[in-house]
Design goal:
single chain; 380 residues; alpha/beta; Rossmann fold; 3 domains; 8-stranded mixed β-sheet; 46% helix; elongated
Length: 380
């Protein structure tokens, strides 16, 4: 083999490959940048090697023929030749170590790409008792800077150590809302959410849960399901089907005035309202929600599908801006929740009250619990 071409992300890797394939005596014939790659052509042909050596050997300047020390009259020609040879060797070494401006710019670009989004620290110094190290560890786990700073600030106010366990405990409390008592004491439960998130199923699951409370006064006569949309639902829609399964009456309204009148006339009943997406983005309905928001016996739930991304959740929450809904997380049997999700819920001020899977209506909702959530964070 005489020549070998290498295309690599950086020049060092490319030169190592040339040396591995052609040997340590190989010479570099050309180097150029192609897009984001570095192309190097090397050769171990004796002609190329000799040609490269000859090219690198420049004639010494006149002043370089003499050493800095004065020459004695008795110095021999051999001594002069030795001095000249040493000077030439020093110059060759200097030229071999010379880095061109082009190579330097390539190297700088490579370093910048490596350092981008990196955190520089001494890994050997990390331990579980240093707050700054815990910050880095939590970042590495996937929690956002905003989440970590907020929780640590909370710990500072309480004069509590900024340990990993304390972080989990505080974050889990910030993410959960104790919904059980409020749900049992509400006479109007409004359930909002986008299409396909399991909103209608949640309405049925809440109704099933209320009917299962043996110590309460809930029965099939005072628990009502209501569809609220701008178009009349089909009698075979999911909400009507759930009503048949649970033996509950299902009502339908398409005007805010009619819905408000029905709620006012049935204050002693428990009404679960399935709000369509059409009204979720309706400004008039948003104003209506703000009016009834102060009533402690009315509660607004927002259904979120697990696995949602930040932008989608941010947009969904903007529809209910200023209403502070309690969020219901659905389809948890399909998606594994991780630190990124917890940071997203925190950064968008999402309080979780109910958790649910995809299937089953009976015994299929769980109330969010900060202790269980903190334990989940520690184990995952």
């Amino acid at each position: 083999m005489t020549q070998h071409k290498v295309l690599s992300d950086d020049s060092m890797t490319a030169m190592d490959e040339i040396a591995r394939v052609l040997g340590q005596d190989a010479v570099i014939l050309s180097t150029k940048k192609i897009g984001q790659k570095i192309e190097i052509i090397g050769s171990n042909d004796i002609k190329d090697i000799l040609k490269s050596s000859k090219k690198n050997q420049k004639k010494p300047d006149f002043k370089e023929l003499f050493s800095k020390a004065p020459l004695s009259k008795n110095i021999s020609n051999n001594s002069i030749n030795t001095v000249i040879k040493n000077k030439n060797n020093e110059k060759l070494i200097g030229e071999e170590n010379f880095v061109s401006k082009k190579d330097l710019e390539v190297f700088k670009c490579e370093i910048k790409s490596i350092l981008n989004e990196s955190i520089i620290t001494d890994l050997n110094s990390l331990n579980n008792h240093i707050d700054d190290n815990n910050f880095i560890k939590l970042l590495n786990e996937g929690y956002s800077k905003k989440t970590i700073n907020s929780v640590f600030e909370n710990l500072n106010k309480k004069e509590t150590s900024r340990s990993i366990n304390n972080f989990y405990n505080v974050l889990s409390k910030k993410l959960t809302f104790d919904l059980k008592d409020k749900l049992l004491n509400s006479n109007t439960i409004l359930v909002s959410g986008l299409s396909g998130v399991g909103k209608t199923t949640i309405c049925a699951k809440i109704a099933s849960y209320l009917l299962d409370q043996s110590t309460s006064s809930y029965n099939n006569d005072n628990v009502k399901l209501v569809n609220f949309g701008k178009t009349s639902p089909n009698k075979t829609s999911n909400l009507f089907n759930f009503g048949r399964v649970l033996n509950l009456n299902v009502y339908s309204f398409s005007e805010i005035e009619n819905l408000d009148k029905y709620i006012s006339e049935n204050k002693n009943e428990t009404i679960i309202i399935d709000i369509s997406k059409d009204f979720l983005v309706d400004n008039n309905f948003n104003d209506y929600l703000k009016i009834i928001h102060s009533d402690d016996r009315k509660i607004l739930l927002n259904v979120i599908q697990s696995g949602i991304n930040f932008k989608s959740l941010e947009k969904q929450m903007s529809y209910l801006d200023g209403l502070s809904p309690i969020n219901v997380l659905t389809k948890l049997d399909e998606i594994i929740i991780n630190s990124y999700d917890f940071s997203m819920y925190h950064d968008l001020n999402c309080k979780l009250g109910l958790l649910s899977g995809t299937n089953n209506i009976i015994d299929s909702i769980a109330f969010a619990n900060s202790l269980i959530l903190a334990q989940y964070m520690k184990e995952n």
